Request: fold
Amino acid sequence: MATNRLWRKWLVYVSLAGLLEGGAACRRVAPRHAGSLPWAESAAPYLPPAGETQMENGLWGECPPERKFDGTTDRVVIAELKGPAVITMIHFALPAAGKLDRSTLLRIYWDGEASPSVEAPLVDFFADPDGALERVDSALVNKKRGWNCYFPMPFARSARVELVSQDPRYPGNASKNPCYSYVMAQKMDALPAGAQYFHAHWRQQALLLGKEEYRVFEADGPGQFVGWNMTVRGVGAPGAGYPVDENVNFHLDGETTPSIVWMGLEDGFGFSWGFPGEANGFPYTGFQPWHKGAAAYRFCVADRITFCKQMRMTVGFGPNETWFHQIYSQPKSELELSSVAYWYQAEPHTPWEAMPAADIRRPTNLPAPAATEAARRRAQEHVKAGEALALDCGSPAGDVAYLKDGWDFTLRGGYSYARFPGEVKHCWADAKELKIELRCPKGAGGLLRLYLLDADNFMGGRKESVRVAGREIATCEHFQQGRWIEVPIAAADTAEGRLPIAIRNLNPAANAVVSYIRFVEGGPPQSAE
Reply:
């Protein structure tokens, strides 16, 4: 088995090694050594002398401050490498929170370019759409308690790998982003003339596929397409299914009619008569059920698709599929597709459209988790108490206990902790300062309530100051039994639709904490919980 895995890895690298041949004389055929055996000449660029390996770590506590998220920045450069070299592996560990969605972007820049050559939600780049899959098995990307990539990525002068955290509730929050990363690379003497660079781009669109095709990507060449991952699901009506009768079209070098067509969506991923009923993960193709739709990947290594000047990849029904065009042109028949395309091309590349905001990148119309009877009762209690916002800070059950329409929050500094002794075990904490912003209707007035608890008498007892809407409210210590801080809020405090809260640690050996946040609209103080 180990020999088979090693042989498979050699075949991947040798096949992709042909990309380094580049060449101004573009041919729409595979490069000379594309399908050759492991010891082929074209593998040589990926076998530099031993001892010339580079590695850069990021995000972990031992890394320099500028390589970590700390709530004060939403962008972190996790690796900056000098070329000529080839990135051979990229690894990300699971966040402390245990999950990650599309809020965090992966961007990679080659040779000082202004526009990234790789831009995608980190999880989707690894064929893990919206972070919803437990496991992904393929030869080039995989996931199980971490994400790993094995695409060879050559560069001549420099490579910059960065993450951008755009979660509207937890921007730049360390516990909500990968807790560790590393990038491996091997130095080279030089890249061959015309070497092609790795690119990847994510898109998502809900559309009437009977009226228009879904556009996966467009690129100006020369280049070579090496794979993609995709999701499809019906979003026009509750419980809608999805068809697999779409074609995957490759328009090469300005073609109006595609010269390469995978007929049948599932056939393009190596299946037939629909996707199978269970997950299947192979080295180059795979499928998993995903939100009553499909998630699939296909890597084209020995069968990559070359283009000289331009490529346009689309998904749509064939010209003779009249019935599907009619059905999927009707209202409430919308399909939502998302995709990451992977390809190599000569630089410079054409910049892409701006990436949508994080909340727009989420899958559309996902059903809300079914509320338990206990959860419904608790929500009714918050409504009865006149609360527009109720946060159980750091609770394993979730930070949000109740949010009225128009209310939300952002945790700009701090992390979750849920191991206090006693009945209330959870809090948000920060060694320096907790920075919280409540988002609310403009001019909302009422009573802000903060519950502070030093249940473990940490480092001889916590001491912290509370500041709300720019006003110093209180300095608190000796709150081992818990203490409510109540702050009247006037319309002027929320005139901009937000209410900033800062809780600063005053014991250098301890940290600042808060366990509950409540906002009572226009009401009198409520009894302690």
